Amino acid sequence: MKPHDLEFLSITTFPAGQTLARVQRIRTTRETRPSLRISGFLLPPPGLLSGRFDLPDEAACYLAEAPETALYEALARREARELSFATVAQRTLLTVETRRPLSVADLRPHARHYPVLQSLRFNETQELALAIRAQGCDGILYRSAQQAGADCWVLWGDAIKTCRITRRQPLVDPDSGGLHRHLASALRGSRIPLCP
C-alpha cells in the first residue's frame, strides 16, 4: 500500500508536550532481552518487522493516547484467550511525554474505508509506513485495532529519543499484589480471564 492509494494523506505537526502511554516489560531476561534500549524504552530490533508499522532499518516505538488503550494493544488483545498473572506482574505502564514537535501522518480518517490499516496483513501497512517515513514524517497516528475509537501512535528513529518517560507504574503492586486500575478496567472490558 502506498500513500497515493488513499484519497489524501494528512500530515500534522503536533507540538511538544503530548502525553502518551506504553506498556513494556519491567526488566528483561536473557531470553527476552531486546536488542535496543532507547530513552528507557525496550524495543525489538529493526528489521524484525513484527509490528504493523515497523520499518526495516529503524526502531519503532508503539504508544497509545490513553493508558487503557496501551493495555488493550499490549495485553488484552482480541485474540487472547487468557492472560497470566505472571505476565502482567512483569509489565509496567509508562507515561510518556514528547519533548519536541513531531510530524505525524494521520491515518485515522482512513480506518473505516481501509480495514487493511487494522489488519494483520503487515506487509501492506509496513509498505505504507516506509513511504510515509520517506516523506520525512516522525511517525503515524492511527486507530487502535484492539479498542474501538481509540488512537495510537508509532514513532521511528530519532523521534523516540525525544520522548521522556515521566512515570512508571507496575501493573501489579509489588506489596499488595493488587492490579493497576487501568489493567482491571481492560480485563473487565475484554472479558479475558486472569490466570495464575
Automatic annotation (TrEMBL):
Q: Which InterPro entries match?
A: RES_dom
Q: Where is the RES domain?
A: 44-167
List, alphabetically, the Pfam families matched: RES
Superkingdom is: Bacteria
Q: What is the name of the protein in this document?
A: RES family NAD+ phosphorylase
The record lists the lineage as: Bacteria, Pseudomonadati, Pseudomonadota, Betaproteobacteria, Burkholderiales
